[in-house]
Amino acid sequence: MQQSPRAGREGDVLAVVSQSGPSVSFFDAASDHYLGSLETIAQPHELCFDPTQRLLWCSITYSSGFYGANGGPRTQLTVIDPDTRRIVEVVDLAPEHAPHGLALDAANGRLYVTVEGSADQPGGVLVIDTQTRRPVDRIGTDAPGPHWVAIDGAGKTGYVTSKEARFVSALDLELGALTAKVEVPGSEGLAVSADGTRAFVAAPFLGAVGSTPPGIQVIDIRTASVVDTLPLEDAAMPVHLTSTGRLLAGEVRMEDDPASGGSRMAPGRLTVFSADTHKRLGEVEVGLCPLTITSSPDGGLAYVACHASSTVDVVDLETLQTLNRIDHAALGASGAHGMVYLPRPA
């Protein structure tokens, strides 16, 4: 008898950002039951969980809006205790601004945070000591607005994407230096394989589709070059790798709107590939504008946060069936964004 995909998840929690709430909501991972919310500074974007310190990091990127269409940058990271659901500290990074992408090297106690550039310097990645919660270094990316960052399992190499720059920045995290620019049309989300040999990048970014067909660019980290493209029907924003080697991409879809004569959001698509063979394994429909993807530690479940519908789809990755759709908007929250899976305390 096949075990339920929910089995053994008692005590685990899913944390989801509401960008326009602004808040972080918590759900029981075994039942999707709502556990409560914590109000944050406007407007939260991404989440990252540090299992060593057992703290959540939340980036506060803009006072309103998104990259390229916002009410001005913010400069804060909010540190949250997920067990007591309280804010531990608000870390002000000024004069650095618009912190967004977050990637954790738990073994070395380092959090990597993208920040946008200014008149006197390009964008970069701040290196935060997770014990003192203060910056200890800044690595330039030579791109004006680095947005997403991912690192390998050993904490040696990082890759940073940018919508505007026509390259992905490769960083040597031990040297604290930009070492290569991989030619890729303006890019969105990314993931780096655990063995540090490949990076998977969604490109081109949503606003540039038409000039280059949408897909996932596969980068050989040893040669800093694109070696394959996994084709998609529509542009993807989030990219995620599970512990079992599945590569997940969230495609944003549009459709004609007869009422306005223009277009409107259509249900998005979660597309699944094998990270090893690059074979397309299947797809499943999700909510409007998938923006963040995460998975359970065992790789059995995928969670897709969809910003425009403010929903989270829970997908069984063995059967590619949707188990539930969490209606974040029903809680009075809107703009589902950053999201992490929190294993129960040991």
Catalogue the unreliable spans: none
What is the number of helices? Answer: 0
CATH-level-2 architecture of the domain at 12-24 and 234-346: 7 Propeller
Sheet/helix structural class: mainly beta
**Overall mean pLDDT score?**
93
CATH superfamily of the domain at 12-24 and 234-346: YVTN repeat-like/Quinoprotein amine dehydrogenase
CATH class of the domain at 12-24 and 234-346: Mainly Beta
Question: Helix fraction?
Answer: under 10%
CATH topology of the domain at 12-24 and 234-346: Methylamine Dehydrogenase, Chain H
General form? globular
Main sheet record: 4 strands, antiparallel
Protein name: YncE family protein
Structure notes:
This is YncE family protein. It comes from Streptomyces mauvecolor. InterPro entries: Host-pathogen_enzymatic-act, N2O_reductase_N, WD40/YVTN_repeat-like_dom_sf. With 346 residues, the chain is mainly beta. The chain has a domain at 12-24 and 234-346: 7 Propeller (Methylamine Dehydrogenase, Chain H), CATH 2.130.10. Helix content is 0%, strand content 56%. The protein has strands at 13-18, 23-28, 34-39, 44-50, 55-62, 65-66, 69-70, 73-81, 86-92, 102-105, 110-115, 124-129, 134-140, 146-151, 157-162, 167-172, 177-183, 190-192, 198-203, 215-220, 225-231, 236-241, 246-257, 262-274, 280-288, 290-295, 301-306, 311-316, 321-327, 336-342. The strands form 8 sheets. Strands 3-2-1-30 form a 4-stranded antiparallel sheet, with no helix packed on it. Strand 23 (246-257) and strand 24 form a beta hairpin. The model has no long low-confidence stretch (mean pLDDT 93).
